[in-house]
Amino acid sequence: MAKIKQNNFLDTVDEVFTSAKKAGVLHLHSDGNVFSGRTIQINGKQHYHFGTTGYLGLEQDPRLKEAAIDAIRRYGTQFPLSKSYISHPLYATLEEKVGQMYGQPVIITKNSTLGHLAVIPTAVRDEDGVILDHQVHWSVQNATQLLKTRGVPVEMIRHNNLDMLEDKIKSLIGKCSKIWYMADGVYSMYGDFAPIEQLMQLANKYPQLHFYFDDVHGMSWNGENGTGYVSSILNELPKNVLLVGTLSKTFGASGAVAVCSDKRLHNKIKTFGGPLTFSAQLEPASVGAAIASADIHLSTEIYSLQAELQARINYFNHLLDQTELPLIDRNNSPVFYIGTGMPISGYNFVQRLLKEGFYVNLGIYPAVPVKNTGVRITISRHNKASDIKGLVEAMEYHYTAALEETGASLLKVRKAFKMATEKIKEEEKQLIPHDFKILIEDSIEKIEKKEWNRMFKGKGILDWDGQLFLENVFRGNSKKEHNWDFKYLIIKDEHDEPILASSLSHALWKDDLLAPASTSLKVEEQRKTMGAYYLTSQILSTGSIFTEGDHIYINESHPNLLKVWKVFIDILESIDHEHYNSSMIILRDFSSDTPYNGIFHDHGFVKVNMPESSVYKNFNWETPEEFQATLSRRSRRHFGKDIAAFEDKFELTICQNVQQDKLPKLQVLYENVRQNNPGLNTFSFPEKLFRSMNEDPNWEFLLLYLKKEWTENNSMELVGVMFCYKNLEMTYVPEFIGMDYQYAREFNVYRQLLYRTIKRAKNLGYKKIDFGLTAAFEKRKLGAEIIPKVCYVQAKDNFSLELLETMQNSR
């Protein structure tokens, strides 16, 4: 498979959010003249509010409101000066009171995002290293981007995986002064906790280990003086811990707080901490409200408030325990997550709850993997017991209905979240509509040849003979990356007419196939010490790494086509669960304007841009002069300068079979291209591939020789080869290329091979050349038609992609 371009992250998020907005569950607007906290008005209707992060309800406390109003009256709406010059009069009081809460001097920032940007680049020195929990909040991960430009290594581990953390510590211990592990105290989606006690034990073992905890979701509702979950476990803040809390959310005001017991580091951050110097300070109203909240936190009242909230949390947990609703992580935090799996199921569930008068948050990519969509429910002191009971009753009724209406099931959801399925009362089976016939085979030899070729004639190496060739090559090899499993799926209507068909492969891919070339180079360096299979995953895809083009046959005119797409996705997921448990399912290759975009997104697939596809069809010429006349004026100049000027320096030999002793040379030429092109970072192919090509009548080799007068040893030199497949006398497929880089650039070997390929296809009478996905710019110069392509990826875990992202822009 050709290199997939790194999709623009914002474009991907925009696709997903746009779909959710259209479903009416995201980017909503609250209306009404008042807001109580217990209910929230949307589209003129009051809903019980289960989406707040003000867990203690302090944002509605009259004392905070009056303090904010009084501060505005006395000091205005803002104090427009940097704190580096002068702070407004209330700041000292706030810092003193929050410092009393923690028993440590503190630093107040405008918000937690700016706080991370102020603290992290100051605390982490050039000789340090960073390890991120892959679920640590985006604002922390974003702040570490600044470290990469300084050459600070930034690594990532799977969520709460202490074994992986220890391995990363060992890899950095001889290279870094301090090793910072950055994590949330309470994670914002599932409400689960960082394993603080085990982390402290790890620090005893590795004195270089320091911690940076973002505990904004643990604030106020937990800990002495409401100082948060992390503080509740640590009791006293060690010197190797930097803690960030919030004055927003549960605290009821605005701003954030950074706490560290290292006095020198505290002074350094406060003296010059990026946004602390150059950003505006908190508005007087926010500081006034925060002071009033701090007074509550410093009184015994905070423990009464915490107890009231905990009683509601316990009640909600008790009610959920009596249902089959898939609570992803049961704990005593105010954050709950009910999985729905597919986005479309999540949309449906949220819509149903809105109609019943309950507002909950939708959890969606990129906060969670697309297939781990769900509803995020938060409990606050505003919620009454009757509200909570009503929500659980509504969820229990509408959850099953939402799944059924969207073609999902509880079994599928629990599988998507890797939850136990034994407690499901009745075994759920995939229901295929009775008006479809499903054929699934594990070899193309079990598929009727004429029927398959009728669907895939002229489509790359996807015809019957091409698939048989791939089966023979990628089975029975010594290396696991050279052994692929194949499936063939045909969905027919009641009249035995195929509606949709595809070949599938299950194989080991390099995770950085989806990453920029610069990232692949870094990963390859790591593989030298971590092993060849570091950052690799088993993938189930339509087609295979070897193939390109229309991997799915579609009867576009069939009236049940949209219904069939849903059945197809169900079958793919069933095949994967029963046989493979892959890291990703990938649907390739679609035009960028495919009408099925919405279906794929709704069912948990994210669109990823691919390189443009190149197809040559213009064979209405007979002579080289007539060929040149088909090109644009600029391309004709290019042709004359870079191709025609070198043509007489080469000789081309077309071989159905080459001598056995020449095959290793062809493999070396291919490996030259593979190893010199990190933008095409696949595993090597087995040696058996080249022997099989040599024995298969559907393959031929275009061997390009540089004449002896142009070589160093004064003899004919094989400098290039095009490996070409012939699809049923319709499509010529230059599958991949090999070159000798000693001569490639000086003599434009690649361009020469492209031109010779066009001439060969013309001589054979073919109507089309599938030039594949790479080097579209070069192929366009020779008259190829360029077609934008995308694929759709359903990842079960965002870890690998997020880890690769940490490698970008780093030195």
UniProtKB/TrEMBL annotation:
Cofactors (names): pyridoxal 5'-phosphate
Domain BioF2-like acetyltransferase: 684-779
Matching SUPFAM superfamilies: Acyl-CoA N-acyltransferases (Nat), PLP-dependent transferases
Record-annotated Aminotransferase class I/classII large domain positions: 55-385
GO molecular function: pyridoxal phosphate binding; transaminase activity
InterPro entries reported for this sequence: Acyl_CoA_acyltransferase (IPR016181), Aminotransferase_I/II_large (IPR004839), AON_synthase_class-II (IPR050087), BioF2-like_GNAT_dom (IPR038740), PyrdxlP-dep_Trfase (IPR015424), PyrdxlP-dep_Trfase_major (IPR015421), PyrdxlP-dep_Trfase_small (IPR015422)
Transmembrane segments: none
Highest taxon, organism lineage: Bacteria
Keywords: Aminotransferase, Transferase
Protein name stated in the entry: Aminotransferase class I/II-fold pyridoxal phosphate-dependent enzyme
